[in-house]
Amino acid sequence: MPDKPNYFVRTLIVLFVLALFSMAFMSFYLAEPKYQITAGIITITGFVVILVLSESFNNLSLGKVLSLSREIQKKENEKEQVKTENKELRQELFKIVSNIQQSQVNNTFNAPSDEWLKLLGVVKAQDSDKEEEQEEQKEVQRAMEFMAEKEKAREESRARMKLRRNAELIAIEKYASNLAIPDSEIIQGAEFSQAFDDIDPIMNRRIVFDGYIKGASQERFIEVRPKAAIHPMYYDRLYVMLNKIFLYRQAKGISAELILIMLDIEGEESDRPWSNDRFYDYFQSAISNKLLKIESISISKEEMESYQPNGQQSLL
What we know:
This protein is an alpha/beta fold. It has 2 domains: 7-92; 161-306, Trna Endonuclease, Chain: A, domain 1 (3-Layer(aba) Sandwich). The chain is built from 9 helices and 5 strands. The protein has helices at 7-29, 39-54, 62-110, 114-119, 127-178, 232-252, 276-282, 284-288, 301-306, and strands at 186-190, 209-214, 218-226, 255-265, 292-299. It has a 5-stranded mixed sheet. The longest helix is centred in the middle third of the chain and has 52 residues, at 127-178.
């Protein structure tokens, strides 16, 4: 049974609406300043609208309208959270499925099939394989021969250096024997002291002489050189030696000279593209000033091989 309308209440609402509307009208047209919409007019107009709408609906609540937006925002937040969780779950599920598939593939690949196991066995090597093996053996053999030749060349070089050193010592001993000088007065591997750096105004080049003999009135510096090694490139070194001996002689006021012993070694080639005449022409001044003296000594191969460092010949 429908409810009967309450005309008394409706009449009161109409009167109240008219009163509110009158106040808004007077505030808009009669108040100073005129025609200005104020906060009070807006409030009254809002009440009028609400009262009019209250007759159109069975239930009108402003709290419901205000809470609707908060409820929609809450639902949107929950929806976004659910989407994020679903995305993470899908990613984890994809990783698990991928790992399972990879594991299955690896197991399938690592596990040999029965057909492959049947084919696995030992067969006779083909001719091409034998040829490759022989070629590898040849390469190894060539490498070993190369190393052997290299070691042999190194040994021969050391042997030649030893014989050359023996030849130098023999030459110095023969020269000292010709002058009746005992071996104890010969200094091998001599050089000027550090104080000589103050004498030479040109360079501090270190020069080592093969021998040095100090006499009562004369000092002799010995340089031993094979005849085949007297070439134009050696002239510069010889010049430096003579210059240092000249400065040394002037500083101490003594007689000093360089004894250049040319070795004529048995078995070595004596043919050279340069002649000794040019050498003598270049250093004629040093020879005339008694700064350079040249001696020639012949040494046999037997002497070099039988020479002992202590100065004694080995008995054959």
